[in-house]
Amino acid sequence: xxxxxxxxxxxxxxxxxxxxxxxxxxxxxxxxxxxxxxxxxxxxxxxxxxxxxxxxxxxxxxxxxxxxxxxxxxxxxxxxxxxxxxxxxxxxxxxxxxxxxxxxxxxxxxxxxxxxxxxxxxxxxxxxxxxxxxxxxxxxxxxxxxxxxx
Amino acid sequence: xxxxxxxxxxxxxxxxxxxxxxxxxxxxxxxxxxxxxxxxxxxxxxxxxxxxxxxxxxxxxxxxxxxxxxxxxxxxxxxxxxxxxxxxxxxxxxxxxxxxxxxxxxxxxxxxxxxxxxxxxxxxxxxxxxxxxxxxxxxxxxxxxxxxxxxxxxxxxxxxxxxxxxxxxxxxxxxxxxxxxxxxxxxxxxxxx
Lengths: 150, 193
Prior knowledge:
The structure holds two protein chains of two kinds.
Chain A: H1 3-8, E1 12-14, H2 19-35, H3 43-64, E2 67-69, H4 76-87, H5 92-111, H6 117-141
Antiparallel strand pairs in A: 1-2
Helix pairs in contact in A: 2-3, 2-6, 3-4, 3-5, 3-6, 4-5
Chain B: H1 4-9, H2 11-22, E1 28-29, H3 30-37, H4 41-53, E2 57-62, E3 65-70, H5 77-87, H6 90-98, E4 105-111, H7 113-116, E5 125-131, H8 135-149, E6 153-158, H9 160-168, H10 172-179, E7 183-186, H11 189-192
Helix pairs in contact in B: 2-5, 6-8
């Protein structure tokens, strides 16, 4: 489904991006990823911190593309992950892994099932790669959103 | 609930046929077949000999290694393969999805609500995979199974040694998983006992 169609079914809303919010979100994702390497964190926390960074990257890319998620509609995390192939041209394989991580987070949040160390590491590694991809993509397609206000 | 084919043929025969008929061009070594299906070598040997003498399987010896494969010449090959494909249970579908990576999997089992028999029709299938398979490869391998099962399949991967170490150390996650009922996909309690 295209971003346009996602907007038509009410999952996305139109959005005018600006550099300040883009830089704020990137800085926040960066902070999360730094925190993910603090020693002594539980696997759940490490996972959640990585997951938050993934969501922020998806949000940056979506906003830069002129949309934001309709957070009043259920399933907006799924929509965010779904938008990644459309914004950052994420491959199907990468998308599958991020979607699997999203489901793990759901299970953990709503049933209290525990997160294993491998999933936590995978989540942080995927988040780190996604942040690099997001920065590269912004530089190439929306360089004005990376310019610090004078 | 048991799948139709398990009810008709029994779990052991179903497991053997599911591995061999769904991948007719991949002969399996007897020991590997025992590992994959969790069937004891004695029982396995008896079943394989019977199925071969009935023409359902082909036996092939390479040196001292004995391999078995589906016999496509068998007059009912298509029907049997179709029966497995259409009625195979959840475990068979998950095992079939993991088979291409079997060399990197020590053991695999389904845990959670599906294994406990408390699932709803929308419940996810939680699969624990022990071995060297990376998480991303597990997700990719199981993606087609999600479509045929119409359920989300959630893999968790861990090195076998780490799983055993954590079980001894009474790690929270591993203890919780191990205490709950499980359905073996690859291997049996025997290997992780």
